[in-house]
Amino acid sequence: MSGAERLSRSQATALAELLRVAPVADRLGEVFSDAGFRLYLVGGSVRDALRGELGHDLDFTTDARPDDIERLLRTVTPTVWTIGKEFGTVGGRVDESPGRAEAAGGELVSWLIEITTFRSDAYASDSRKPLVQFGDTLEGDLVRRDFTVNAMAVELPGKRFVDPYGGLVHLAEGWLDTPGTPEQSFSDDPLRMMRAARFTSQLMFRPAPRVIQAMTAMADRIEIVSAERVRDELSKLLLTARPRPGLGLLVATGLADRVLPELPALRLERDEHHRHKDVYEHSLTVLEQAIDLEERLPDQPDLVMRLAALLHDIGKPATRRFEPGGKVSFHHHDVVGAKLAKKRLKALRFSAGEVDAVAKLIELHLRFHGYGGGQWTDAAVRRYVRDAGDQLARLHVLTRADCTTRNERKAARLRRTYDELELRIEALAEQEELSALRPDLDGTQIMAILGIGPGREVGEAYRFLLEKRIEEGPLGPERAEAELRSWWASREP
C-alpha cells in the first residue's frame, strides 16, 4: 500500500470516528465558540481516531483559562471534576442524550472528557515536577507536545484538521518523531523518553534516528522525574501486547541503566571457554512466552506476571561462577534475584502487594526443577502448593514460560512433566482442599490439649502439625492429637 493510500484510509477512518463522537464534540465546540473561545479535539484522541481506535475518553485543548473551562463545562454536564485545575485541566462526564441512544438502538453512552488550557510543560534543571505555563495559540501548544502523532488537532465544531508538524504522514508511515527538536521535547519533560519506548511497542512505530540520539545523550535527565511517574510509564510499556521492542530501546539508549539497571546487567560477557544461555535475550523471550500464556490467568494483561517474567533471572549476574570443564553455575540466583527485585520495585514505588508477589514468584521459579524428572511425592506437591500460596496460577505460567530450549525433545518432556504436576495438584486439591492447607488442629485446640496458654510453644506445635499434614496428608483430629502429645512429651525440658 502506498503512502497516499495509507493517508486516504487514515483520513476516511478519522472522519467515521469523528462522526461517531460528533454529538458531544460539536456540543462542546458550540458552547465554547458562543463564549468567544476556541476548542480542539487534540493529541491521543486524534491519533486514535485516525487509527480507528477512538474510545470514550476524549482530550480537548482551548484558549480558555481553567475558571472559564469549568464554568462552560458545567453548562453541559453536572458531573465535573477539578482535581487537575491548577495544571490547567478540568474533566467531566458527558452522557449521550437518551433520545439519540434509543434512535440508534443502543445503550446510553458516557464520554469522559478532559479540557486543558493551551500550555507547555517544562522542568527546571533540578526539579522533579513540571512547571505549567499557559499559552495563547494552538500552534504553540502543539509544538510543545511529545510527538508529531500526538500534535494533531481537530477544530470544533467545524472539524477543521490541524496538522502543522506532519503527524498524519508519520502516523501512516509508522514513524515516531518530535514536533520540535527531540532535545527540546525531552528537556520539557524527560519522561517522554520512556514514552518513546512505550509507543515503540504500543504503536509498533520506529523512532527517528534523532530521537534515539537525543534519548542516548539525555538519558541521565530521567533521574529528575519522580519514581511514581517512571513506574507508571514502565508499567504501561510492560502491559502492551509486545513490550520487547520498547524494552530494547530503553536498554540501547541507556535509559534502562537509570530506571531498571538489573535489566541491562543481564547482558553478561561471554567467552569461548565458558558458555551459557544469553540471559538478557532469554529473559525477554520468557516475558513473551508468559504473555502468550496469560489466558490461563483470571485477569489479562497481568502486570505482576510480566514483571516476574522479565526479572526472574536478575540474580544471575551476582551469582555467576565458572566451574571446571567450562561449565557456568548460578547457584541461588532465585533467592538473590528475589531480594534484588524487591529492592528495585520498592524504589520504583510499586505497591507492597505487587512487590511481594513478584519476589515470591522469582524465589520459587526454580522449585519445579528441584524435583528431578517428575517423581513428586504427595508431600512435595503439598509443599509446592503451600509455598506458592495465592501465586500458584502465576507460578504455573512462569515455570512454563521459562522453558526456552531449542531442543524440542527436552521442551516436550518439560511440558509433559509440568502437565502431570498440575494434574497431581488438581487431584490432591479435590481430596484435601490444598488451597486452605492447615493442620488438623488449630491454636485453640492445641492450647486445650497441652494445657498451655498463648506463646512460642503454640507456634512450634502448630508448625509441627502443619509439617505432618504436608508429609502425610489429613490426619484426622484423633491421630493429630496423639501425634501432638507424643511430640510434646519428646521435647527436652
Would you mind describing this structure in some detail?
The protein has 493 residues and is of the alpha+beta class. The protein has four domains: 1-173, Beta Polymerase, domain 2; 177-259, Hydrophobic Seed Protein, CATH 1.10.110; 268-436, Hypothetical protein af1432, CATH 1.10.3210; 443-490, no CATH class. Helices cover 53% and strands 10% of the residues. It has 23 helices and 13 strands. It has helices at 3-34, 44-50, 66-73, 98-103, 138-143, 167-173, 182-188, 191-202, 209-217, 227-238, 244-253, 255-259, 279-292, 303-311, 316-319, 333-347, 352-364, 378-388, 392-401, 408-432, 443-450, 456-472, 477-490; strands at 39-42, 57-62, 80-81, 89-95, 110-117, 119-122, 131-134, 153-156, 160-162, 175-176, 206-207, 321-322, 328-329. The strands form four sheets. A seven-stranded mixed sheet has the order 3-4-5-2-1-8-9. A hairpin with an 8-residue loop joins strand 6 and strand 7 (131-134). Helix 14 (303-311) packs across helix 17 and helix 18 crosses helix 20. Mean pLDDT is 86; it is low at 100-105.
